[in-house]
Write a structure and sequence with these properties.
This protein is an alpha+beta fold. Helices cover 17% and strands 36% of the residues. The protein is built from 2 helices and 10 strands. Strands 1, 2, 3, 4, 5, 6, 7, 8, 9 and 10 form a 10-stranded antiparallel β-sheet that branches. The radius of gyration is 16 Å and the shape is globular.
Length: 169
């Protein structure tokens, strides 16, 4: 059990490391800067936001996972807003941060441990994509990387996931 808050979901199907999940809606604060695609800038900006760099000057509890979405054109990184702020989310000071609703829905997910890298992420994405298609679902979004651990967590205790929004085919 994590000491950090996570979005709520139900597991509808599970086989080995793949799952079909139904998430309830939740809010995120998302970093998107077309002029600076570095993930260090994204994480640093999000960390400043939860450390009180927001219009309310309020320190916000860390949550997991940190969600990254990478396309050919851009890279996004998002922080899950704690449930207690659902009705009044502190507005970001940084113009590269936006509050967005992450709509409820079905997601395919695959979990893996260790350090994440492009090669491992692609291997897991391909495995999840094949499994989703076997189960009769279609992808409805870009694939996302969900990271659950602090940078110094030993590899064998790390939790990483690849997510994709899906619908029945």
């Amino acid at each position: 059990m994590s000491k950090y808050e996570t979005p709520d979901y139900d597991v509808l199907m599970k086989e080995e490391d793949c799952e079909i999940r139904k998430y309830v809606d939740f809010y995120i604060v998302e970093y998107e800067n077309l002029n600076n695609q570095e993930s260090n800038s994204a994480f640093g900006t999000l960390f400043k936001y939860i450390s009180s760099d927001n219009k309310a000057n309020e320190k916000i509890s860390m949550t997991v996972p940190v969600i990254q979405e990478v396309t050919k054109e851009k890279k996004k990184m998002a922080f899950v807003v704690p449930e207690k702020y659902r009705e009044q989310i502190p507005e970001p000071n940084n113009p590269n941060l936006k509050v967005k609703k992450f709509d409820e829905g079905l997601f395919g997910a695959i979990q893996y441990s260790g350090f994440s890298n492009k090669s491992k992420e692609l291997k897991m994405k391909n495995k999840l994509e094949e499994w989703i298609q076997e189960k009769g679902y279609q992808e409805q979004s870009n694939y996302m990387l969900a990271s659950y651990n602090a940078p110094l967590t030993p590899p064998m205790f790390r939790r990483n996931e690849i997510w994709v929004r899906i619908i029945e085919a």
